[in-house]
Amino acid sequence: xxRQSGYDFDAIVIGAGPNGLASAxxxxxxxxxxxxxxxxxxxxxxxxxxxxxxxxxxxxxxxxVHPLGAxxxxxxxxPLAQHGLEWIHPPATGNSWSHSAKTGIKP
Length: 107
Ligand SMILES: Cc1cc2nc3c(=O)[nH]c(=O)nc-3n(C[C@H](O)[C@H](O)[C@H](O)COP(=O)(O)OP(=O)(O)OC[C@H]3O[C@@H](n4cnc5c(N)ncnc54)[C@H](O)[C@@H]3O)c2cc1C
What we know:
By secondary structure, the protein is of the alpha+beta class. It has helices at 18-29, 67-70, 73-76; strands at 11-14, 34-37, 49-51, 58-60, 94-97, 103-106.
């Protein structure tokens, strides 16, 4: 960002969702100074988690199934586990209802 604009950063990212954070990290890794603006009190965007019910119980606020996150080359390149991330892989990936009200399990 131009010093003439009054901002002393190479780039300003609006929004600290996964894409904004990935962009900011990529630019910072390239040696650029980056400012991230987030309107909410916490970062994460649609991938936030929060104590929505009882203390100690962390819930997904929006997204809850993350095959693209777990498979992302970028997310594998950042040490998210050191910051508490754990991908949980269920034994069944989902289910769907048939017209006869039986449930099909997708292994
Ligand atoms: C209900 C719901 C369920 C979903 N379920 C899944 C799922 O199961 N699996 C999956 O892979 N994806 C899911 N998604 C999609 C996933 O959440 C998005 O693809 C992902 O969050 C997009 O990331 P992003 O960084 O582009 O934007 P966002 O995550 O939307 O982040 C944008 C951020 O920018 C901030 N912002 C916006 N405007 C401004 C501003 N003017 N100034 C400052 N900050 C601003 C917002 O507060 C927000 O934090 C779901 C989304 C929703 C809404």
